[in-house]
Amino acid sequence: MTGEKTLKITLVKSAIGYNIRQKRTLYALGLRKHRRTVLLPDNPAVRGMLHAVAHLVSVEEVTSHETA
């Protein structure tokens, strides 16, 4: 096990009323519906997208052996 970090991202607030760029960022992250969770690798691209929608999501760091 390499212990690679994975991010557990949950959409906690609706994107209704926010601009189209933030909605498209959520869609690109795989968050299509409210209260859904996705697991994504911890890398600079994902971190940048999370920075843009930080007020709409909840993020937890988990290691790869915890996700199995």
Quick gist of this model?
With 68 residues, the protein is of the alpha+beta class. It is built from 3 helices and 3 strands; from the N terminus they run E-H-E-H-E-H. It has one domain (5-67): Ribosomal Protein L30, Chain: A (2-Layer Sandwich).
Comma- or semicolon-separated keywords:
68 residues, alpha+beta, Ribosomal Protein L30, Chain: A, 3-stranded antiparallel β-sheet, 3 strands, 34% helix
Note down, in words, how this protein is organized:
By secondary structure, this protein is of the alpha+beta class. The chain has one domain: Ribosomal protein L30/L7 (Ribosomal Protein L30, Chain: A, 2-Layer Sandwich), CATH 3.30.1390.20. Helix content is 34%, strand content 28%. The protein is built from three helices and three strands; from the N terminus they run E-H-E-H-E-H. The protein has helices at 20-29, 44-52, 64-67; strands at residues 5-11, 37-41, 57-63. It has a three-stranded antiparallel β-sheet with strand order 2-1-3. Helix 1 runs antiparallel to helix 2 (44-52). The longest helix is centred in the middle third of the chain and has 10 residues, at 20-29. The protein is globular and about 40 Å long. The model has no long low-confidence stretch (mean pLDDT 92).
The helix fraction, in percent, is: 25-40%
Instruction: Give me the CATH architecture, please.
Output: 2-Layer Sandwich
Q: How many extended strands?
A: 3
Return the domain count.
Answer: 1
How big is the Rg?
12 Å
Strand content: 25-35%
Order of strands, widest sheet: 2-1-3
Contiguous runs where pLDDT drops below 50 for at least 5 residues: none
Q: CATH superfamily, please?
A: Ribosomal protein L30/L7
- Mean pLDDT across the residues is 92
Shape, principal axes of CA atoms: globular
Q: In sequence order, what are the helices and strands, one letter per element?
A: EHEHEH
- The number of helical elements comes to 3
Specify the structural class: alpha+beta
Question: What is the CATH third-level topology name?
Answer: Ribosomal Protein L30, Chain: A
Distance between the termini: 12 Å
Q: Which CATH class applies here?
A: Alpha Beta
- Major beta sheet, specifics? 3 strands, antiparallel
